[in-house]
Amino acid sequence: MADRLRVRRSQGFVGRAEELAFFQDLLGDIDCGGVVFVSGPGGIGKSTLLRQFEALGEAAERRVVRIDGRDVAPVTSAFVAAVADAAGCDRQADPLEALAAVEGLLLLVDTAELLGPLDRWWREDFLPSLAADALTVVAGREPPTVAWRADLSWRGLLHTIALSALPPDQSRALLEAHGVPRQRQPEALAFAGGHPLALSLVADVVAQGAGRFEPTAAPEVMAALLGCLVETVPSVLHRRALEACAQVLTTTEELLAVLLEVQDAHKLFDWLRRLSVVESGPRGLYPHDVARDALGAELRWRHPEQYADIHRRAGAYYRDRFYAVPVDEQQQVLVEYVFLHRDNPVLGPFVTQTAGSGTDLRSLVATPATEEERSIAREMVGRHEGPEAVALLDFWFARQPGCVLLVRGPDGDVLGLVTTVSVHSATAEDRAVDVAVDRVATFLDTLPPLHDGEVAALFRFWMQSEAYQELGPVQLFITLHFVRYYMSTPRLAYSFVYYADPDLWAGICAYADVSRLAAADFSTDGKTYGVYWHDWRRTPPLAWLEQLGKREIARQPLDVPTVPPDVEVPVQRLTQEHFAAAVRDALRGYARVNGLRSSALLESPLVTSRAPAHADARARAAVLQERITEAATRLEASPRDRRAFRALHHTYLQPAPTQADAAELLDLPTSTYRRHLAAGVDRLTAILWADDQDSTAHPAR
Predict the structure, then answer these.
(1) How many other C-beta atoms lie within 10 A of the C-beta of residue 358?
(2) What are 40-60's pLDDT values in tens digits?
(3) Main-chain dihedrals φ then ψ at residue 404, nearest 5 degrees
(4) DSSP for 211-223?
(5) In what order do the strands lie in the sheet with 158-162?
(6) Alpha-carbon distance 57 to 65, whole Å?
(7) Are 77 and 63 in contact (CB under 8 A)?
(8) Separation between Cα atoms, residue 624 and residue 586, nearest integer Å
(9) What are the extents of the domains in the chain?
């Protein structure tokens, strides 16, 4: 039976040709011993490869000894005894001396991570005591420690093999060996990503005649895969850390603390970094793709509330971080944010088509096209949209300098372009030249007029260099550029974008609350383009992102309602009498911690005109305090109001313990002090009321 099993293993083995050839060369050098470390995450094929090494060793007439770390205590005496016994040494002899006399020894140690305490002893005592031609293979989740690489005496005798996922052709061969029909292979490949154990598990599910494989519909597969990938987790909090790491693109220590709602995540971060299924990059930690998918699918099935909580906290973190980082880092934050949507049934395919492209969106940039680069942009637009479009590109190149941006890869190659036209500043001549701008401007004429400083923008040209507007990494980067524009453009009122195939984008646009505007469709060079738009007055950027966050974790994203078209962003308009009463209440709370959190002024134009859309009470209270301070400063600057200001200042802004103390500080009789204070409150209220009315007439968005 052992012989039959050996033959079947050999026939079913797929790939790893380079590793086998390397090991065959080692075996061929009869005088050259040494040690080979085979490392990789659970299920990647280390044990399977060791069986092939075993077969090659037997064919080379080596004395093959195989030890599994699960069967041996990590104690020197136990390990030596086990190896000597497996090698057939005389049990009456000293085991180390007996092993030293074994020529042509091939020692295979599997699951070596369980024998970690023996690492130094192996390096300094055990392996040096073996015969000169002894060859040892150590297979475990971790590569050799730094001590191995720093020990010059092992140089030339130490070899490392880091196993990674199988390439697509070998993955398909493995599925065929499992009897998976060719038409069912894509679903297994999409999930497993070349991970051998994952491929085998999915192959079993498919072989049982099940419908299309869905990770969340196969919890037993996820449990088996996770059990192999992550054998032990010290605590519930450690497991939550691993699950959180799997939900985001890259994990930093700061982000981990936010996701877990802990003050200090240092120890948890270090634990994650040591896991074989987690890798380190310049921007943080990230799990292997199969581990990420398995953890995500299992968490969403087992604990959907926790899954949703992690995504909500991550979304809030990225929204806050966008405005906190330098401008050149905002694109990176958006890449991290959009990754949260990869499991969403609407936006997921839009995101995941980029994942396997090998392009890191964070390495792309969009910079203004120079005059010397105009020919590159002209050639791209002409190839995809025709000569009339090229003439329009030239027109806007001259009319609105800087509106044409080129998308560049990490090596500087031009991969695409995007052109943003400011429709609010387009003249009658501009509209006569470009039908697309005229159609959008005509529609704008039907809306309430733009206030001074408000912006309406049309993304007039956007495309990839080769793939035009097809889904792909450059297209996704351009879409994120749109989002960055939405979030960073002050007082953006309306945005418009066109598509060569508007029906293809209907689902994605509906998800993003971008509405079809057939009235603005236009034609150039015989091609018709469909236009979509968004009203940022109705749903400002932060409210829009909050809506996307709710859709991102919903099973039916489009069932999450948008803001009705006829609803304005709520603004509280107080009567002058109520406004004056609210100012008096605000002055009493001005110097107290959280004293302005419940002020009636927080929803007034005085505050909402400056506060970010959907800002919380704390942020709005800070704006209110700022407006009161500014008004008081103007009061102080007026010689006529200086005495009133001083009474106001020592009563509310930097208050004395009591009003009697304030009067004494000002060296005024109580009656005079109170008269000055009343005048100060009245004058401050008048200034704030004027500011409120001005904000109502000219709201900031």
Answers:
(1) 7
(2) 877 788 888 998 899 898 888
(3) -100, 120
(4) SS--GGG-HHHHH
(5) 63-68, 105-110, 135-140, 34-39, 158-162
(6) 10
(7) no
(8) 9
(9) 2-162, 168-213, 228-340, 362-559, 576-697
**What homologous superfamily does CATH list for 2-162?**
P-loop containing nucleotide triphosphate hydrolases (3.40.50.300)
Contacts with 330 (C-beta within 8 Å, 6 or more apart), sequence order: 322, 484, 487, 488
DSSP 8-state code for residue 652: I
Facing residues of 529 across strands? 522
Q: Is the pLDDT of residue 246 over 50?
A: yes
Beta bridge partners of 278: 287
Give SS3 for 403. coil
| Residue tagged 């079947």 (tokens) | 8
Is this prediction's pTM over 0.85?
no
The C-alpha atoms of residue 572 and residue 578 are separated, in whole angstroms, by: 11
Least reliable range by pLDDT among 69-83, 161-175, 320-334, 611-625:
611-625
Q: How far apart are CA 182 and CA 195, in angstroms?
A: 18
Same fold, 228-340 and 362-559: no
Asked whether 105 and 63 are in contact (CB, 8 A), the reply is yes
Cα(699)–Cα(573) distance, integer angstroms: 13
- Nearest of 207, 505, 454 to residue 347 by alpha carbon: 505
The answer to whether the CB of 601 falls within 8 A of the CB of 586 is yes
Token representation of residue 629:
């301070």
Tokens of 359: 């392009």
Q: Over the stretch 164-223, which tens digit does the pLDDT of each residue have?
A: 888 888 888 888 777 777 877 777 777 776 778 777 777 766 665 555 666 555 556 666
Is the torsion defined by CA of 487, 367, 385, 431 positive or negative? positive
User: Which tokens sit at 517?
Assistant: 């505007």
Domain 362-559, classified CATH 3.40.630.30, yes or no: yes
Residue type, 607: V
CATH number listed for the domain at residues 228-340 = 1.10.10
